[in-house]
Amino acid sequence: QGQLVESGGGLVQAGGSLRLSCAASGSISSINAMGWYRQAPGKQRELVALITRVGFTNYADSVKGRFTISRDNAKITVYLQMNNLKPEDTAVYYCNIRVGVYDVNYWGQGTQVTVSS
Question: What is the pLDDT of residues 38-53, one digit of tens each?
Answer without folding.
Answer: 999 999 999 999 999 8
